[in-house]
Amino acid sequence: MVEYDPFDWETAHNPYPVYRRLRDEAPVYYNERLGFWALSRYDDVVAAHLNTDDFSSAHGVTIEGMEKDAPFLIVKDPPEHTAHRKIVGRLFTPRRIAELEPFVRRTAAGLLDRLRDADRFDVIEDFSFRLPLDVISELIGIPSSAREQVHKLSDRVAVRDASGAMSEDAIGATLELAVLFTDLVRDRRANPGDDVITMLMNTPVEEMLRWDPPSHYQGRWTTRDVAVRGTVIPAEQRVILVTGSAVHDERKYPDPDVFDIRRDIDRHVSFGFGRHLCLGASLARLETRVAFEELLRRFPDFTIDETGAERHVSVNVRGLAKLPLVVQARAAA
Ligand code: HEM
């Protein structure tokens, strides 16, 4: 019997073998110990994303669901979600994001220029964490003096221990972050800035998102009994839509474990799907493309020091915390 525990360290490091077994052996999986269901086939994940009546986001989008009462767009159902999404959606259209490219490129170039004389740096800590943080901070008006702290606190908020519990440190970081933002909002009210939203283009690096997506599942809550593949998931149950598995579903993508940049991706679900489709998808795509362009222009001959790589494991997010690059100093093009 396949056992899927997203909090297990080994699974978090490489969940794909477990995902394959889930898809083949238990596409409607129930974990009694942790109290959640998991849908792992592409078709089922997409159908559940589209069915917001039966699969609600209002009980949170993680297994623990601790964020359920937070004032976040992501944990709202229609009609509240529809109204809020309409307001912020205007700021994140692909056209407006396209206009942001010069600004994103300046930010990327500024970060990399500081590393010009280095013979080695950590591409995660020194570059890829900072770029989206600096961009979104600029857009929402977080002063540069507070960015480092927001970044560190945000990282600590999402970390869980092996049992899936929120650590005291994560709770402390959440409170600190809340205080910091409350102060910032107060300051902004008193001194309104011109946080002008300019903006992008959509030249995806989609295969990377499919092959090893940053967000591995989206939690839902059944509002009534729902039958999936002949199994009835009762009402009032936590169900996770395992998008990390759906994008490796061989029923949808041939040879799914092979990284193939020419692959016909069609609609992947790495940014979610349907109503809660990632609001920042265009911005994330722009940042990724610019980051690679600027990085490779300066450091075309880098090698990766794999011994120094460290995985970052948090609630439903998978990625690297450290990835040292050994580089040859080279003037910016
Ligand atoms: C590669 C980077 C990113 C990935 C993989 C990603 C992934 C996702 C996923 C899977 C969802 C759906 C959650 C659900 O259905 O429960 C989501 C929602 C969301 N994302 Fe992203 N995201 C990324 C970057 C961003 C950025 C840069 C922003 C900020 C502008 C952002 C803002 C949001 C918001 C506000 C939602 C909630 C939308 C809603 O509920 O209507 N994301 N994201």
Q: Uncertain segments of ≥5 residues (pLDDT<50)?
A: 194-204
* DSSP helix fraction: 25-40%
Largest sheet at a glance? 5 strands, mixed
Form type: globular
Bound molecules: protoporphyrin IX containing FE
- Order of strands in the sheet with most strands: 1-2-8-5-3
Description of the structure:
It contains 13 helices and 12 strands. β10 and β11 form a beta hairpin. α6 packs across α8, α6 crosses α13 and α9 runs antiparallel to α10. About 3% of the residues have low confidence. The structure holds protoporphyrin IX containing FE. Protoporphyrin IX containing FE (HEM) binds next to α8 and α13.
A few lines on this structure:
By secondary structure, the chain is an alpha+beta fold. The protein is built from 13 helices and 12 strands. Helix 6 crosses helix 8.
Write the layout of secondary structure elements.
Layout: H1 9-13, H2 16-25, E1 28-31, E2 36-39, H3 42-50, E3 55-56, H4 80-89, H5 94-98, H6 101-113, E4 120-122, H7 124-128, H8 130-140, H9 144-157, H10 168-190, H11 206-211, E5 218-222, E6 226-228, E7 231-233, E8 238-241, H12 243-246, H13 281-298, E9 303-304, E10 310-313, E11 318-322, E12 324-326
Parallel strand pairs: 2-8
Antiparallel strand pairs: 1-2, 3-5, 4-12, 5-8, 6-7, 9-12, 10-11
Bound molecules: protoporphyrin IX containing FE (HEM).
Question: What are its keywords?
Answer:
alpha+beta, five-stranded mixed beta sheet, binds protoporphyrin IX containing FE
